[in-house]
Amino acid sequence: MAPSVEHFKFRILIVGAGPVGLTAATALSQDGHSVTVLERHPDLQAQGGTLTVQPAAARAYTHIGLGAALAAISITGHGLHFWSYKDSSGPIGVVSYGNMKAFMTERPAVQRMAYDASIVAGATVSFNCHVIGLDQNALPVRLWTADGREYTADLIVAADGIKSKIRQMIYPDRDVEPVPTRECIFQSQVPLHILISDDRVAPYLAPNTAHGTLGPGKFSICRATADGNLAMTSIAMDYGPPPAQGDINASWTMPGDPDELRDMFKAFPVPQRAYLEHVSKCTKWRIAIAAEIPKWIGKSGHVILVGDAAHAMVPHAAQALSQGIESVVGLAQILRWARPELNGTDLPQLLERFEKLRRPRADKFIKLSLNNAGNHSLPDGPQQEARDAQLRKLGDEQPNVDWDEVVIDIDAPERSMEFTKWVRDYDIVAEVNQFMTAKQ
User: Fold this and answer.
1) What's the pLDDT at 110?
2) Which of 123, 129, 112 is nearest to 66 (CA)?
3) Which of the four CATH numbers 3.40.30.10, 3.90.950.10, 3.30.9.30, 3.40.640.10 does domain 180-289 have?
4) How far is it, in rounded angstroms, from Cα 110 to Cα 61?
5) SS3 for 257-294, per residue?
6) Most buried one in 31, 32, 149, 232, CB count within 10 A?
7) pLDDT in tens, 270-295
8) Can you name the residues that pair with 104 across neighbouring β-strands?
């Protein structure tokens, strides 16, 4: 059976107008669904750091006609150059993206791109709409906002982030608050026109490159931005006791101290120390991890969590946004299988199949991101030496790989060619169609 061209058209409410929610609005509206997005803020948010749209997520954007728009707000990356904190002479290894490209960009730019596309596709985006109540047992499902308005829909898509209110509402008897950690991330940017005059920073300025520097208890990633800056993310794994729950909910991001940042990374290579000399301001972001939940779908089968609301992960696989993008493009694709003659009654079954398809991939990246955090911050010693040797080996081997001959394998060892191809060559639309036509 193939997806129906005349599939059932649902009335859909999306909670949250971040990049994932607005990408969902675009994909679903393009397929003829009636889509309204409810966002609690008064406008699109200007804050947000650098991020990478991974090759598989970029392919998902291409499926909904946003490939060129993504390229216009991004710098393409062809590999990640890994440095040791002890060595200023150059990278110890380069992990290639193979025959694919990653798109290095910034959260506000992706959000604006998806917003513009959602409006063109016919979605309604309503700001100042703070959701305070949900009745998932009613048909249609209902929710209420703080201004007293009631909304109804066939499907509610919760894209309201790691602090999701909808997640709390569908799990009222479970602690699903994010769990603060001891980790802290500092984000900074310096204009390229300033750095170009400093020869010490030159290794970081090679076109289409990203650079990661690994040290005991801390590491960093830097890359150029499309608007003419070099952005650096600096990670301290043991910054101190996590803030109280109320504090972290009040503000994820707060002003940082550039002098503190310079002091923390004073033992790192010359290019990084030189870059930090030019930093005049920075922000810091205390990291939390998501509470585990048994299902992404509410008990009625008409509410689903997506993005960080469903599968938040620490940022050390650079996959959090990309997994949200894959998921919502996949959700739109799977709803094409809704049979018109069933009048939407097959929605719960379709959502169950969606989670069955998507959850193993998201869970794999949750684990990978945690593993990367530990692996990138190893203390000096045998484990660190083995890691560096593996990076050197990858840098030597990957340029000679015939990626067309590599077989995708989700269960292969991390950093193997087979696993790497599964990470990068995944095609969400093809995966949905293959999954839906296979015998269950």
Assistant:
1) 97
2) 112
3) 3.30.9.30
4) 11
5) CHHHHHHHCCCCCHHHHHHHHCCCCEEEEEEEECCCCC
6) 232
7) 999 999 999 999 999 889 888 889 99
8) 52, 75
